[in-house]
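Morning!

This is the sequence you dropped in the shared folder:
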Amino acid sequence: MHATRIALDITPLQNGHRFRGVGRYTRHLVAALAALPGDEIVYLLAYRAPLDLPPLPPRFRVRYLPRFARLGRAAALLSHQVALPRLLRRLDVDLFHAPCLSHDPSVPGLPLYPPVPTVVTIHDLLPLHYPAPLLAPWRKRAFYHRQLAAARRARHILTDSEHVRRDVIARLRVADKQVTAVPLGVSTEPGLPGPVPPDQPYILHVGGDYFNKNVGTLRAAYARLRAAGRTTHRLHLVGGQGAAMDEAGDVRRYAGLSTAELAAQYRGAALFAFPSIDEGFGLPPLEAMAYGVPVVAARAGALPEVLGDAACFVDPLDVAGWAAALAAILRDPCLAGHLRDAGRERAARFPWSRTAEQTLAVYRAARSPRV
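The structure's back. Tokens below.
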């Protein structure tokens, strides 16, 4: 009997997910899996080289999918729905892992008719809860519901939190034993030891302008603080694609940051604010905690589950509450110090090694007729 062959889609490192949590999840999962003992052969399916990955052992082998560049937006869809299944057959793999479920045909996640058993990670079901901003036009809606149907047929489903696990079981009407919550991990960038002194103290938000990040509430709360003279801190908004962008006044916006540049933003922040209206996990505030930054987060989605009692929680749409919480932490060194210590302790409970170990356990069990 040949060694178990697992195929893992790493195209989120090269498509629209690159600058989002899915890209970081994919990168760290590969690195952590490679550090574990095992005899499984792992094929990493990518569009092209180079890849932003650490050195890998020989049993990790990169294979490339055709990109069909001349077909424009249809290229990725054709690659995943036609070329990827053919490649899985040619490699004779035993299991395929799709690291995300996409609602956008230009960033496809799961082959609709894979030729081998599949594991799929569902990070959230936001398109079912907020269809208006996410599932227009109708092509996205149709594609997403086909993706959900493919996920129901998967051998096993992974989620980042119990919050999403319960949602998947209820919304997709799948068996409890078919879904496992495997928390994400958190790590710091070792190349930048110590805090980075900022030119001017700042409040940090990482997450981009996606609708669920609710940046408008943070901007409004920050404007109140500035107008009342309650802070001289700037506001740094990090996330999205493209080059770094500066805004006029006291709000600075940065996009397309490297891992080291993002680490510098975390290390230099006086406070981290995350007012998201819904999250399947909440990696940025946990990363901020790992860097020793006090965190204010929304009481929404999986954030209370992930952050525990190590963050200051505010209702996501309460502008006055956000302004008060930010001001309280900025003016009270004891409160800020308590949140820093509690945050570091909380983040230490989420190593990527545990994510990899639990994911590998699902791979191994998924080779049986049913998990």
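Headline: The radius of gyration is 21 Å.

More detail when I'm at my desk.
O.
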